[in-house]
Amino acid sequence: QKEVEQDPGPLSVPEGAIVSLNCTYSNSAFQYFMWYRQYSRKGPELLMYTYSSGNKEDGRFTAQVDKSSKYISLFIRDSQPSDSATYLCAILTGTASKLTFGTGTRLQVTL
Amino acid sequence: EAQVTQNPRYLITVTGKKLTVTCSQNMNHEYMSWYRQDPGLGLRQIYYSMNVEVTDKGDVPEGYKVSRKEKRNFPLILESPSPNQTSLYFCASSRTGGSGNTIYFGEGSWLTVV
Q1: Residue B82 pLDDT grade (very low, low, confident, very high; cuts 50, 70, 90)
Q2: Quick count: other Cβ atoms within 10 Å of Cβ B54?
C-alpha cells in the first residue's frame, strides 16, 4: 500500500464549478499536509499547507484535513481555466523536510 | 527573486556516460533535495542535504550521488546512467527541515538515457 494515495484523474469540469480533490494516507505519524500545483513542464508550487484537522481557506481554495480518517481534500470554488494543472497532495514528516507525495490529479477546467 | 535553478533543462545521453545535473539556490537555504517524477509514481526523493557536507539518502538513491560543498549548490551525479533513470528531475530547497517552511522547486530537468 502506498503511503499516500491520490486518484490520478484526469478530472474535467466546466468553468465556475466547484472542484474536490482528495488524498488518503496510511501513516498516522504524518504531521503536515500540503497541496502543490504543477503546471505542465514546470516545478510544483506550494498552494496551501495545514497541520491540524479542520479547514483552512485561502481565496478560492480550501484545504481540509480529517486526521481520524486519514483523509485530506482541496476544494476549488469558481474554478477557472487557469486552474488547469496537476494537483499534488504532499505530507511532511517531522524530520528532514521529507515530503511524501501523491501521484497527482490532473485537472482540466473547460470554458 | 527567490529561485532554484537547474541545468540542463533537457538532456539526452547514452547509457554509461557520466553526467551531472546542477542545482543552485539564491535564498541561503540550509536544506536541499532532489526528486524524480515518473508517471504513476509521483515525486520520489533521491537524496537530501541538511547543510554543507551533510547529505543522506532518500527513497530512491540507487545509481545517484550528490555533494554539498557550498550552501547554494547541490549537484546530482549519475556516474553510469541507465535507461531506468530516464525521468523528470526536480531540485528543491527550504530554509530548514520541518514544518511551515516553504519548499521551493526548480523548473525540472528532463533526462533521457538511451
Answers
A1: very high
A2: 11
Of B41, B50, B105, the CB nearest to A103: B41
As given in the structure block, the three cell numbers for residue A30 are: 504524518
Distance from CA of B40 to the nearest CA of A (A): 6
Q: Kindly report the CA angle at B27 between A92 and B68, in degrees rounded to 5?
A: 75
Q: Exposed/middle/buried for B39, CB within 10 Å: 0-12, 13-18, 19+?
A: exposed
Give B31-66 pLDDT, tens digit per residue. 999 999 998 888 999 999 989 999 999 999 999 999
CA-nearest residue of chain A to B95?
A97
How close B9 gets to chain A, by Cα (Å)?
A: 10
Backbone angles phi, psi at A82, to 5 degrees: -70, -10
Cβ <8 Å between B48 and A96: yes
